[in-house]
Amino acid sequence: MVKNVVQQAGVVGDHAVVHHMTVQGVFPDQRDVPDIDALAGQLAQLRQAMQQHAGQAEQFVEIGNVATAEVEAKKGNWDGVLNALKAAGKWTLDIARDIGVDIASEVIRKTAGL
């Protein structure tokens, strides 16, 4: 059995067809990809700040997403970081901006589409 692994796709399948489509990555230019070690440190700072302000269940879910991204960044797993931060919300981005973690803010903004 052949298993296909798709990182990013507009259409998949034996008889799939697509017209007039543009697919763009989160960081289309490799020079824009942040330092994953610096990002891991900023995600740790962000997680700690979020823990101090969380009160609603949804906010604790967002903390979990940031914690997962932090763990994946420490492993050097860029795809894992992006997958974890896809679900980040405006509250996460607002706190990241408030505490000045610029790398994390930019990754969250681009990944979550905020």
Task: Give a short summary of the structure.
By secondary structure, this protein is mainly α. It has helices spanning 36-53, 57-75, 78-85, 90-99, 102-112.
Describe the structure.
- The chain is mainly alpha-helical.
- Helices cover 58% and strands 0% of the residues.
- The protein is built from 5 helices and no strands.
- It has helices at 36-53, 57-75, 78-85, 90-99, 102-112.
- Helix 2 runs antiparallel to helix 3.
- It is globular, with a radius of gyration of 16 Å.
- 25% of the residues are buried.
- The model is unreliable at 1-7 (pLDDT under 50).
Number of distinct beta strands:
0
Distance between the ends: 39 Å
Quote the beta fraction.
under 5%
How would you describe the shape? globular
By secondary-structure content and strand pairing, the structural class works out as: mainly alpha
Q: What does the radius of gyration come to?
A: 16 Å
Summed over residues and divided by their number, the pLDDT gives a mean of: 83
Seen as an oligomer or otherwise, the chain set is: single chain
| Count of helical regions | 5
Q: Main beta sheet: strand number and arrangement?
A: none
Low-confidence stretches: 1-7
Order of helices and strands: HHHHH
Q: What is the helix content?
A: 55-70%
